Every structure is written in structure tokens, then in C-alpha cells.
Amino acid sequence: MALPPAPPGRIVGLYGGSFNPPHRGHLHVARTALVRLRLDCVWWLVTPGNPLKPEGGTAPLPERLAAVRRLAAEPRMKVTGFEAAHGFRYTYETLRFLVTQRPHTRFVWIMGADSLATFDRWQRWRDIARLVPIAVVDRPRFGLAALASPAARTYADARLAERDAATLPFRAAPTWVFLHGPLDSHSSTALRAANGCGGSATPPGPGA
Ligand SMILES: Nc1ncnc2c1ncn2[C@@H]1O[C@H](COP(=O)(O)OP(=O)(O)OP(=O)(O)O)[C@@H](O)[C@H]1O
Ligand SMILES: O=C(O)c1ccc[n+]([C@@H]2O[C@H](COP(=O)([O-])O)[C@@H](O)[C@H]2O)c1
């Protein structure tokens, strides 16, 4: 799967996710980053599988890709599953590859507050923080945990004032910004539960 086009000098937000299923909260995150960081576009990276989540609980990649494409059908949103095509499982691998392949593109990693709260469990998280600027979008119930997290404390000195968010893509990593409100309370877990899937892609057996 080819990478989306990115002419030299472009500012691209990288928004990785399981999107199992995608929802309006995801669109809120992508749009918030696009506007507040003045990005040229957002690439939605539909992961083959979050290494920290149990295998088997995630819908097949083609299904998630199709659903994300329907949700993010906007001019400056590009949806790709290129990580699976390259056999990338960890975000560090993805970022290392992209900054090497596209040295003239400015990349920013985008994630929600819940992801920052557990970022110190990601493979080579300090190397990720040293590779690209990071934008964190607040999420209901996770703001405090995110800002008190090991990763936030480790890089406390590298935190950019929110009023300067638009300068984030031009700053040398490590640098990050926490973007407060408005908030969106949608969640894939809640949607799966509402659809009767109970958080698992495997339907219960007879009599369950
Ligand atoms: N409502 C939301 N507000 C802010 N960030 C969000 C929101 N929903 C998801 N995110 C962020 O989007 C990225 C992808 O999230 P993901 O696909 O895991 O959705 P989720 O709703 O968190 O799913 P699940 O409930 O299965 O964990 C993550 O960085 C997550 O922090
Ligand atoms: O690289 C890691 O160790 C790692 C650990 C957890 C999550 N991630 C990435 O974080 C992004 C968000 O994942 P998720 O499941 O919260 O939507 C997605 O791109 C994952 O590949 C990456």
C-alpha cells in the first residue's frame, strides 16, 4: 500500500488508531489537530493491531479501513493501512520509516489523553518523543491521569504552551502540547458494548 502524497514542506499529522469501530470522537481529534496545529493534512494510520491490546478483539483491518474512510471522507483527511503492508507493529517503526522516507515533510504524532496516560508502556516511547512533536487531545475522564503520567512528567520541560500550538510542527522534538476542550465522549468500547459485542469480536457461544 503506497503512502499518501506529501509534497516537500507539508505539515502532516499522523493519527494512529485501532478504530474498532471508528466514531465521532476520532473525527473530533483529527479536526482539532488539523485546525489548532494548522496542519496541511491528517493521515489516519489504521493499525493492524495495538500491541498492548489483546489479539482477537479487533475487527479485520479491511473492515476498519472501510469504516474509517467513510467517517473521514473530508478533503484533508487521508486514510491508510500502510503499517500492515510493511509489517510494522510498533509506532516507533512507523515513525522511523516515515521520517527517513520523507525527510522534507514535517510530521506530528496525534493522540488522545488516554494514550498519553499509558504512553510509557509503548515500545521505545522515549525515542518516539525524540523523533517527532506530539499533540495530545483531551478526552473526558483522562485529562488528569494524562498530565500526571510518567511520560508527561518525563517531558514536563518540553511541554509547549497551548497558545503556541500552531508552532508545534516547527519545533525540534522532544516537544508536545496538550489541547484542552471542547471534549467528545464517544468511545469504541461503548459502541461495541452497545452493539452487543461486549468488547470482543468473538460472538458468545450458544447459551452464553
Ligand atoms: N473521544 C475521544 N477524545 C479524545 N481522544 C480520543 C477519543 N476517542 C479516541 N481517542 C484517541 O484516538 C486514538 C485512537 O483511539 P481508539 O481507536 O483506541 O478509540 P477508543 O474509543 O479509545 O477505543 P477503545 O475504547 O476500544 O480503546 C487514541 O489516541 C485515543 O486516545
Ligand atoms: O508502539 C507501541 O508500543 C504502541 C503501543 C500502543 C499503541 N500504539 C499505537 O497507538 C495508536 C492508538 O492505538 P489505539 O489502540 O489506542 O487506537 C495506534 O497507532 C497504535 O499502533 C503503539
TrEMBL record:
<keyword id="KW-0067">ATP-binding</keyword>
<keyword id="KW-0547">Nucleotide-binding</keyword>
<protein>
    <recommendedName>
        <fullName>Probable nicotinate-nucleotide adenylyltransferase</fullName>
        <ecNumber>2.7.7.18</ecNumber>
    </recommendedName>
</protein>
<comment type="function">
    <text>Catalyzes the reversible adenylation of nicotinate mononucleotide (NaMN) to nicotinic acid adenine dinucleotide (NaAD).</text>
</comment>
<feature type="domain" description="Cytidyltransferase-like">
    <location>
        <begin position="14"/>
        <end position="193"/>
    </location>
</feature>
<dbReference type="GO" id="GO:0009435">
    <property type="term" value="P:NAD+ biosynthetic process"/>
</dbReference>
<keyword id="KW-0808">Transferase</keyword>
<dbReference type="GO" id="GO:0004515">
    <property type="term" value="F:nicotinate-nucleotide adenylyltransferase activity"/>
</dbReference>
<comment type="similarity">
    <text>Belongs to the NadD family.</text>
</comment>
<keyword id="KW-0662">Pyridine nucleotide biosynthesis</keyword>
<keyword id="KW-0548">Nucleotidyltransferase</keyword>
<dbReference type="InterPro" id="IPR005248">
    <property type="entry name" value="NadD/NMNAT"/>
</dbReference>
<dbReference type="InterPro" id="IPR004821">
    <property type="entry name" value="Cyt_trans-like"/>
</dbReference>
<keyword id="KW-0520">NAD</keyword>
<comment type="pathway">
    <text>Cofactor biosynthesis; NAD(+) biosynthesis; deamido-NAD(+) from nicotinate D-ribonucleotide: step 1/1.</text>
</comment>
<dbReference type="Pfam" id="PF01467">
    <property type="entry name" value="CTP_transf_like"/>
</dbReference>
<dbReference type="GO" id="GO:0005524">
    <property type="term" value="F:ATP binding"/>
</dbReference>
<dbReference type="InterPro" id="IPR014729">
    <property type="entry name" value="Rossmann-like_a/b/a_fold"/>
</dbReference>
